[in-house]
Amino acid sequence: MPPVPITPIRVGHIDDVQELRKTKPRTIPQRFVRDMPERPTLTTTPLPPPHSHMPIIDFSKLSRGNKEEVLTEIFNLATACEDWGFFQVINHEVDLNLLHSIENLSREFFMLPLEEKQKYPMVPGTVQGYGQAFVFSEDQKLDWCNMFALGIEPQYVRNPNLWPKRPERFSETVEEYSGEIRKLCYNLLTYIALGLGLKGDVFEKMFGLSVQAIRMNYYPPCSRPDLVLGLSPHSDGSALTVLQQAKGGPVGLQILKDNTWVPIHPIPNALVINIGDTIEVLTNGKYRSVEHRAVAHEEKDRLSIVTFFAPSYDVELGPMQEFVDENHPCKFRRYNHGEYSKHYVTNKLQGKKTLDFAKIQTKNTN
Predict the structure, then answer these.
(1) Could you tell me the pTM of the whole model?
(2) How far is CA 261 from the centre of its chain?
(3) CB atoms < 10 A from the CB of 339, how many?
(4) Which residues 6+ apart lie within 8 Å of 251 measured at CB?
(5) CA 117 to CA 229: how far, in whole Å?
(6) Beta strands, E only, the chain
(7) Residue 82 CB contacts under 8 Å (≥ 6 apart), including other chains
(8) DSSP bridge partners of 130
(9) Residue 188 reports pLDDT greater than 50
């Protein structure tokens, strides 16, 4: 994770949304009220069933299926990556008791007294600890969300002072959970590579000692969800992102599909996976990272647990030669992944704007 900024960043007063909900449940401070173009449209009309939306990948067919099942599911995975950039994974082989434990402990952490959570502050300009990330000015609009984030791998990205002592077994469970999600990411990257016609281990070899982080997001109810956003629109700077949505919560995740914000209905015990900017660069835009956001709900809270999986900071990245030819000119320059990561976390979330860092700028000949 990037170091603490050399000069302090002035972010002004940031209300803790859980405390705001407790003490002034009808109040929406102006810093949370979005400008008109950014406000979400909250539909109340029935939506088609989730199976007609985001693709579903059965991991057991990839890992234990017969030859025909494996080939079919690799094709389904490739189609999901190219057409959606998002998919839900069922039968993912992560112990369901472990999913249940990390969910319960995350919720317990957010329910701790504010003074306890503030022992692990997210310093402005950094992305570990408790608070709000990606805030860089006093007039910036804020998300209706509390976050708690930790660097996991390699060991040097960790800040031991930010690992909480309460609830009990929180740290041990995060360790165990992160290890299982890490295995899943490596396995998925193998099948994604095969779907691209590459050797299965190409990404594992390229990435070196992969960087991994975890972030818990807690979205309290909001009396005016039409005025706020739970999380600003953005794409992820990772290679893969794994999202666990807590049971019983409202639909909150939306992805930008064909210029329309599509709500994602979570399947029980499934994990939602999305392609990050790194894979878009490596495939020269064949697989694209997709803009997504979170919305708030008037009556229900929502909890999500997100894992970010990316190459080592010292790896140099750029489009792979297999995806560059006369019909597909190179869209991105080569760059150091650590530099990109630093660029990502030191800018506010603005759709896919961060990826401009890597784009080759074409001259306008008109």
Answers:
(1) 0.93
(2) 17
(3) 13
(4) 263, 264, 265, 266
(5) 23
(6) 56-58, 86-90, 129-131, 146-153, 211-219, 231-234, 240-245, 253-257, 260-263, 271-275, 292-294, 302-310, 316-317, 335-336
(7) 286, 287
(8) 121, 148
(9) yes
**Which two three-digit tokens encode residue 82?**
């190219």
Task: Quick: pLDDT tens for 243-260.
Answer: 999 998 999 999 999 889
pLDDT (mean) for 340-344 = 87
Contacts of 285 (CB under 8 A, 6+ apart): 323, 328, 331, 332
Which structure tokens are listed for 156? 């040097």
In this structure, what token pair is assigned to residue 341?
């990561």
73-358 CATH choice from 3.90.1300.10, 3.40.50.2300, 1.10.3210.10, 2.60.120.330: 2.60.120.330
pLDDT tens digits for range 194-229: 999 999 999 999 999 999 999 999 999 999 999 999
Specify the higher pLDDT residue, 144 or 14.
144
Task: Report domain extents, the chain.
Answer: 73-358
Confidence of residue 87 (pLDDT cuts 50, 70, 90): very high
Across-strand partners of 56?
A: 88
